[in-house]
Amino acid sequence: MVKLRLKRCGRKQRVIYRIVAIDVRSRREGRDLRKVGFYDPIKNQTYSNVHAILYFLEKGAQPTGTVHDISKKAEVFKELRINQTKFNK
């Protein structure tokens, strides 16, 4: 099973997180399938590759709570609903 979760990067006291698609059995710093964005909690900046996130969500990937909240602010789930309604018609 694949999850969308945060991977810690940066240095001491200056953390930056990558949003990655990763296998559930992998550890936090383990090998990821694909990098789909990043989150800087200090500057409160977020960059996300919406197409990659939508691809993994459509394939059944589960976002963690924090990634879900970040994606919700970026309105990724709004685009997911729009895409689903296009294909269901």
Automatic annotation (TrEMBL):
GO cellular component, one term: mitochondrion
Claim: Plastid is one of the keywords in the record: yes
Molecular function in Gene Ontology: structural constituent of ribosome
UniProt subcellular location: Plastid, Chloroplast
An individual GO BP term: mitochondrial translation
Keyword Repeat: no
Pfam families per record: Ribosomal_S16
Domain of life of the organism encoding this protein: Eukaryota
Major subcellular site: plastid
Keywords: Chloroplast, Plastid, Ribonucleoprotein, Ribosomal protein
Family: Belongs to the bacterial ribosomal protein bS16 family.
Protein name, entry field: Small ribosomal subunit protein bS16c
Organism (species): Sargentodoxa cuneata
Lineage: Eukaryota, Viridiplantae, Streptophyta, Embryophyta, Tracheophyta
